[in-house]
Amino acid sequence: MSLAVVAVYLVNPRFVESINNKATDAILSFPGRTAVSGAVVMVDIDDASLAKYGQWPWPRYRLAKLLQKIEALGAGSVGLDLILAEADRTSPGIWQSVIGRELGYKIDMSAVTPGLIDHDRYLAETLAKGPFVLGYEFLFTKSTWWKSCRLHPLNTLWVNSKDSELVKSGFFSAQSVVCNRTLFSDAVSYSGFLNATPDSDGILRHVPVLIGFEGKLYPSFALATLMQSGKITQIRIEQRANGLLDLAAGGAVIPIDRQGNVTINFGGSPGDVQRVSAADLLDADSRVAAARFKNKIVLVGSSASGVGKIYQTPARKVASDVELQARLLENLLTGRVAVRSADFIMWEALAGLLAAVLVCFLIANMEILASGLTAATALIVFWAGAGALFQRTGVLLSPVLPTSLVVLNYTVLTILKSWKKQQYSRHRADDALLLLKSSEDDLNSIIKSVPDIIFRLDSHGRITFISPAISKYTDAPDKLIGQPIFDLVAPDDLDKAKYRLNEKRTGERATYDLEIRLLLPHHHDGDGEEMGHFSVSAEGLYRGDTPAASNFVGTQGIIRDITEQKKLEERLLRAQKMEAVGNLAAGVAHDLNNILCGLVAYPELLLLELPQDSPLRDKIAAIQKTGQKAAEIVEDLLSLARRGVKVSEIINLNTVVSDYLASPEFAKTRQDHPNVTIESDLAPDLMNATGSRAQFSKAIMNLLNNSAEAMPAGGAIRVSTYNRYLDMPLELYEMIPAGEYVCVSVADEGVGIAKEDSKRIFEPFYSKKTMKRSGSGLGMTVVWATVKDYNGYIDLQSREGEGTQIVLYVPATRENEDANPRRMGLEEYLGTERVLVVDDMPEQAEIATRMLAKLGYDVASVASGEAALESIRRNKPDLVVLDMIMPGGMDGLDTYKRIIEIHPGQRVVITSGFSESERVKAAQQLGAGSYVRKPYTMEKFGVAVRKELDRGT
Questions:
Q1: Does 62 lie in the same domain as 180?
Q2: pTM score, two decimals?
Q3: Total structural domains within the chain
């Protein structure tokens, strides 16, 4: 059995490694070897420094000032526990270049001291003047990104030169490196790597002192600062008889293992290393004694929250990287370095076998009590001996195997000498203990991996346990322990929470999915909110199996964050509302379009027939204008329903804005708001966009009208256009993807929009204005629909009493607009061909027939798709004008499919009150021609018919 344990130990599985780590951690914590060199000072860029001088990373000039102050105090060596891999973007020179390139501004830098124009250059000059050491990090995967930088390899003297290559092959070998900018690494004479990797249990014990890279050896950061302090240019490596290596650097002799590692001794108090806040050094009024730095080794780094790496140490303390380097440097200076080599496991196995033999002899020849005392003494000797060996030589042997074998053999042999019941009971107890420990570890692992918050309350509702998931909402979860859970509940939900959370409920009466708001900071869509929505499930805990009030001990449960779900539900409800209103608007618009056809088309026909001096012309023109205004309202309804005809033309929004500002409609707006002034700033190099000139003109009209009405006391409206390129998504009122955009901004000095209203202003009929000149309530909805029709985005920024700015982001295009669009004259769309009009509404068919007859065509009409097929079979027309929506029979698409079966290639023009895009596109993919939306005008209708007849001829 002992041999089996030794065999398992030699294989060194993870659990054995973990036990050995804990044992060596205990030996490292033994008192003794606590001498302090007093030669190491740590300059800490701590939370106080960041609070006083700004967030990290600091501008390089400030870092340079800090280093200058340290050097001026007489430091013998200064190590920067930082990697300065990228350029300082805060340098005035770079800032001037970026501002000039991106915004077109030229900034005068004549007042800036020339030495501070480039912060990196300023820092490099500082580094070149002092005893500074830089850090870098080796990578163990192949990468060429950071390879072109200067490192400082070791000049190594091998005492056993014939073994040097064999020894070097055991060191870690890096594949690439993350290093400092070249101007920094060229400015110093010493640098070292910052690599430190915790063991599999997350605790840092071993740190490499030497690492190979491209055939050369490089020192660790701590070793490099030690060498800089003593101006050491060469190290010596000598192999010990026990397989360890001695690394001599000046007067320091450092034992290392065959991988180049040392085991850090974290013994002693945290105050062993002097610590000075960077804020104290940078403060002009601060007086730091020069004696604290004179000829000392100074390490500059950060322990601030969220900055740099942190490590869990064997002493269960958390150490920052600079604290780690300082502790390692203390070890090197005082000789307190611990060494544990992989070869030690063989010595430990041999000691374990000898201990097992000793225990067997004792059990066989002594009574149980005497043998037990002897075995206990042996255990003390093992542990004390391991501690003494470490204190004298730094060699760190684990007494785990000898201890385990002594305990195991003593226990087993003693049990064999006792009765079976005792043996059985002991084994059951050991098994239960192992299972309990394993279950506890498993439970802790599960709790840590659960994203929901698991909590437990005492009988008074105070928190006694809360899982790590709470860390998403607070930086100090420990402060919640002992706090009543009701302190976290929003006031409006407090009564509901008190009734459901701590009412001793259990079983079927337990609380499930209780939705309440908790005062936990919640971030959503870029906004910080003081509370979020959560779902709580909880049940009471009792002593024993009977849930009596006297046995009640508290409550346990789970809290799930459903804030995102609530936001999605709100969006879904808003979308469903918009869809319902859109469907209603679409139906109304369709019926109104059919009615308005007569009101728009007949006046146009009458005006063609009346003489110019007829007294009826003005009255008919007024009727026509009224019908066109009604048609514009229908157009808004179609925009709301997103069922309008999407016109795609190349437009310049400067022209759209200018034309509207010069229009009679805008003149009327200015007349209604005489105290409002307009300021325009239109970019001369504005790119083009794809869209409808009329729709964007209406969107700009609505924005300007709303801005004017938002300033009852007057003020200025600023209209501006500009190009904007986003190389990454921008989260504003909505998420705007990366790309090129043409922007139109309308900003006013009005009353502003309340935060709770800003999410709803684009909803149809949502308005808080009095309905005087405020329109139909569709203005902002039309703006939203127009921008979305052309794949654009909207940003809205407003605060009550401070005005509102709305920016339209429209995708830019490199195409050019037609500078002189040609308009066809009446004589160009006359014709004599035979045309068949298919429309289920007689008045619509009559209007289309009369218009086409007026243009010279031979026109016939039918009232259904079935009638159209009969007519086409008898006499094939040159063109069919086909209504898409004909309730009660075949619609336009089905009719067209049957027509092309009879006459393939039959020319067709599609008409409707609004577009069912899928049906229209399907018909056009089958060969149908252009689409004309009702109500007709003579020009649009005639041009569409003529173009289709002339297509391909």
A1: yes
A2: 0.44
A3: 6
